[in-house]
Amino acid sequence: MLSEAVARNVSNSSREFQALKDFGWPYINSTVHHCHLEGITCDDHGRVAKISLQSNVGCDDEPWYCHDLRYLDPLVFTSLTSIHLTSCGLYGDISSNSISYFSNLIYLNLSHNHVYSYLPLSFTNLSQLHVLDLSDNDLGNSVIAPEIGSSSLVYLNLSHSQLQIELPLLLPRNLEVLDISSNRIFGAIPSGIGYLHHLIFLDLSNNNISGYLPTNMSQLTKLEILKLDLNRLEGVFEAGIHMLPSIKRIDLTRNTIRGRIPFEFGYGANAQFLNIDLSWNYVFGEVPESVSRLDGINLSYNSLVGRIPSNVWRKFGTESFLDNLNLHPPKGSRINMEIIYYVIFVIFIFCGIYFIFSKRREKKAAPLTPPYPKHGDIFKIWNFDGNMAYQDIIEATQDFDFKYCIGTGAYGSVYRAKLPSGRVVAVKKLHRFEGDNPNYDMCFRNEVKVLSQIRHRHVVKLFGFCLHKQSMFLIYDYMERGSLFSVLKAEDEAVELNWKKRINVVKGIANALSYMHHDCSPPILHRDVSTSNILLDSEYEGCLSDFGTARLLDPNSSNQTLLVGTRGYIAPELALTMMVTEKCDVYSFGVVALEIMFGDHPGHFISSMTTMRSTLSAQNMMVQQLLDKRLPSPDEDVRVSREVVGAVKTALKCISSDPKSRPCMKDVSHELAKHPPRLTMPLRSISVLHLMHSD
Questions:
Q1: Which of 117-131, 352-366, 601-615 has the highest mean pLDDT?
Q2: Which of 10, 337, 372, 397 has the highest CB neighbour count under 10 A?
Q3: What angle, rounded to 10 degrees, do the helices at 665-673 and 499-518 form?
Q4: Kindly report the CA angle at 603 between 601 and 608, in degrees rounded to 5?
Q5: Strand order in the sheet with 114-116
Q6: Residue 60 is a catalytic residue
Q7: Catalytic residue among 528, 546, 585, 658
């Protein structure tokens, strides 16, 4: 009998080895027993108990179909308790597969693959199952049966799986984590959701769920995270979810919620740890004082009215209440902007008078000096003969003849000048009538001040400046290709600016902004990041330019400012609050990065992303369709396609309407510098929605 058992084990072992080989297990080695292969765990009897494979290991460079689901045969792998096969090119029809016959299965994760068809009812046979993750597949019109796992199931993730169903009336009762976000689920949330008494995490976001929350959701006493954003919910306050004893986060942004914020909104047992996002809804009425008890709240883009209670305003500030047109801060919290403008104007006048008299005193006191050398050394900032530099520039441009003009900036014209030394420079000249304007004078001096503090390869080099009675000008390194805006508009140059060069431009500008925000003290904000203010050299390397409106960030001030920048690149909150932060530059960078990838300004795209139907828009828009059609598709080069997708994904984070959701430029720079991860699907199959919600 013993010999028969041994022979049977040897036979079964051979069958398991052959099945793994047919499956395409990447670590197969005929000299090594399969129980010792990477990703394989066997039980005490030498039978396969756990298999784990992920990240396209063992496949070709970009595998869309790599491992066949059919080779997971329960008649061969009779002892399997755990299957973890994620992002490995797994494909097959899950409804015709016999996975449901793995009666000992406790853990099943087939996420981020190409498994298709509906979730079979036979999955209810998996009586021991605790974890089921089929996210990022194509499950179609699957039915989520409450009998799955015979109520032993504690984790269910079917997000990003193309589900087109109504929520079932009943769900597995012991669930602790339920994630069915980013699908096409419709209808109302059934009252059965209130019977999931063990639920800790619930994510139904990014669907088409409508109606009111069932009142028995107040029974979810263990719930900590509730995500219902990007749906069509109308009523939530009546369910009392803000009063749940364990709740820490509620996300309700971008629904159609109507109603007043309840008076007792901040009186829940866990209020001091609770963050609520109710932005982009139709909430009306006044802000109750109890809101101050919460850890965080976002009520932006609603229809709130009245004055914000002082303690609420002090705790949360402007960013929590953006674009509520009839909502006002408490009295005395904001100085009338007209007064600010008047004070600034008066300061300019006095500064101008002081400057004129100072110059007159300097002239009278200036001692006689010996003649200077013929050509002043303008290539040492602050240390050159301004008069002689001026004479060199006059001769090189024939007194700023129009034929040397290569562009017009925000407050002056730019000329190409070849100096006697042979060096070619760009000269930005402030016109006479602009020189009399204190605003332009301030911009000139501001640019000199800021650029004198910056040393970065992706920030245009300032060689010198000249203050002359006839004119004022700045002298920069000459960038042969001109502005990025002009290059993208010119067909031939746009084609020459291929995907690799475009990625390098995006990375370079990200590095420059990261340096300005995080490595300069105090931090420097550009405030006008646009394709017109990015210059390209002969190799299409990008440099950030035009620092006339740049600003040193003072951590001890409110940093309120006049609205500056280029239309189409200005962060939405800046236009509303006049409060400048580094996140304003982040937003502008995101717009620029998308413009580089799309070949045109992404204004229409961004508008579609900020409407109430942004989910549908993002779901229907494929990344490949948005990319610049003048270039060949980047999927011809695996590495390039990964980097293009990574750049678009990062840019999408940067253009978030909520400044708090945007990454900082240091994180952006690090993300772009990393080795791009493998794509889990062909470029043609990647939607904007997928990028917005992928890790």
A1: 117-131
A2: 397
A3: 140
A4: 140
A5: 67-68, 90-93, 114-116
A6: no
A7: 528
